[in-house]
Amino acid sequence: MKGISYSRYGGPEVLEYGEVRDPKVGPDSVLVKVRAAGVNPVDWKCRDGHLDGILDAVFPVIPGWDVSGVVVQPGLSVTEFAVGDEVIGYVREDYLCRGTFAEYVAAPVRTLARKPLNLSFEEAAGLPLAGLTAFQAITGVLEAGRGDTVLVHAAAGGVGSVAVQIAAHLGARVIGTASERNHDFVRGLGAEPVTYGAGLAERVRGLAPEGVDAAFDTVGGDALRVSANLLAPEGRLVSIADPEVLGYGGRYHFVRPDPVDLGRLSELAEQGVVNVHVSETFPLERAADALRLSEEGHTRGKIVVTVDWDTETTE
């Protein structure tokens, strides 16, 4: 099959498009015919070697953890899915090797849920990692709900945009940081936009003089420090970007595959609560360009890699 792979850590230049090994389908996995794969910052961070301290790499590595596609072969003990089922998945294992930037991926059933019927494959591919991150942080760690004021950083990004929608759905008042060009977008998601950068604390204080009940840091550094200083008494703080959050009494969260959470997220998408904005798509052979764009850090919503089976001959 065709796919993207790298045999050593490095920049975009280490990525190669061509023949890669066919996946083996274990008893608790299904073979998914990939229609689209979401791009996430962790993809290029893994490629660069930034996660080498916590994840072993079995080279060559196929990048990508997000997928939407169609089941073509269930494993011997799988009863949850059948041939032809449309699925989404956050296909992260405990090591780097078998990713989703390929024509097929063998996905453990614990990483999958049914694809939302109302989303395209491209939209659905942008949901699993970012959506689960937001869902687990907002509902689990922060326990946001009616009456809370929630601060969400990078509210126009993949994770932030979903976090805003979920928090607003739960009845919280949401303040979202974003560049001015994204203010209307963030407002449409259900948040009150504020421009990030110098003076952010004062701008948020102007909207929430008594502080915020919960803060979701997706950026780290100055954003984390500002968030900690803006908390109301008994306020809750979580970061997905900076372990220094522990020093502020908050929680660090690394998203975990969870079929129940992913299924609930899929339901929220079908109900129209969560929408996925796809800013740009790239064909599989141009995945390196997709990662370059992700590294620039200014994406609204999601970047997605697609497999065009109408023109592919590999089956």
How would you describe this protein?
The protein is of the alpha/beta class and 315 residues long. It folds into two domains: 2-127 and 276-306, Medium-chain alcohol dehydrogenases, catalytic domain (Quinone Oxidoreductase, Chain A, domain 1); 130-252, 3-Layer(aba) Sandwich (Rossmann fold). 27% of the residues lie in helices and 28% in strands. It has helices at residues 41-48, 121-125, 128-141, 158-169, 183-189, 200-207, 222-230, 259-270, 287-296, and strands at residues 2-5, 16-19, 29-39, 56-57, 66-74, 86-90, 95-96, 104-108, 112-114, 149-152, 173-178, 192-195, 212-217, 231-239, 251-252, 278-283, 302-306. Strands 3, 5, 6, 8, 9, 16 and 17 form a seven-stranded mixed sheet that branches. The protein has a six-stranded parallel sheet with strand order 12-11-10-13-14-15, with helices on both faces. A two-stranded antiparallel ribbon has the order 1-2. Helix 6 (200-207) packs parallel to helix 7 (222-230). The radius of gyration is 19 Å and the shape is globular. 50% of the residues are buried. The model has no long low-confidence stretch (mean pLDDT 96).
CATH superfamily of the largest domain: Medium-chain alcohol dehydrogenases, catalytic domain
User: Which parts are unreliable, with pLDDT below 50 for 5 consecutive residues or more?
Assistant: none
Overall residue-averaged pLDDT value: 96
Topology-level CATH name of the largest domain: Quinone Oxidoreductase, Chain A, domain 1
Give me the number of helical elements. 9
Using the CA coordinates, give the radius of gyration: 19 Å
Helix content: 25-40%
Give the strand content. 25-35%
Structural class: alpha/beta
Shape: globular
- CATH architecture grouping of the largest domain: Alpha-Beta Complex
Return the string of H and E elements. Answer: EEEHEEEEEEHHEHEHEHEHEEHEHE
Secondary structure tally: strands: 17
Largest sheet: 7 strands, mixed
CATH class of the largest domain: Alpha Beta
Tally of structural domains: 2
User: Roughly how many Å apart are the termini?
Assistant: 8 Å
